[in-house]
Amino acid sequence: xxxxxxxxxxxxxxxxxxxxxxxxxxxxxxxxxxxxxxxxxxxxxxxxxxxxxxxxxxxxxxxxxxxxxxxxxxxxxxxxxxxxxxxxxxxxxxxxxxxxxxxxxxxxxxxxxxxxxxxxxxxxxxxxxxxxxxxxxxxxxxxxxxxxxxxxxxxxxxxxxxxx
Length: 164
What we know:
Blueprint: H1 3-32, H2 38-43, H3 49-59, H4 65-78, H5 91-126, H6 131-145, H7 148-162
Helix pairs in contact: 5-6
């Protein structure tokens, strides 16, 4: 393989890993400063201080945030994303249990969206600069800009409520 391409590929991989690291630090920092306590949420307002301290120690919340982050990061490098703060189940099991439905949803979505996107892209290329090209480009940007949760909510309303 061409050394220039290998160098570019290596740079892109390093930049992707750095981006993941920066995003993980930002997300961890934001969640660390949020008000509330996971142990308090699980045990309720009537929990004794001893029970709270024991659960915090079990959950690893009794150590400083930088140490918790490093433990999580090392776990991720080893392939262990840890345990859910709310259910105490392994995160890998939670993700694995939901993965088949997520993959099915992605496949069905791709089954519809890829042919439509290809047809619109080819038509836009054939009639480049025309009103069709501009309308297709504008529509594509508008569709991509809609948040997934809004699309999901609308899909539930249409398919589960209206079309029962």
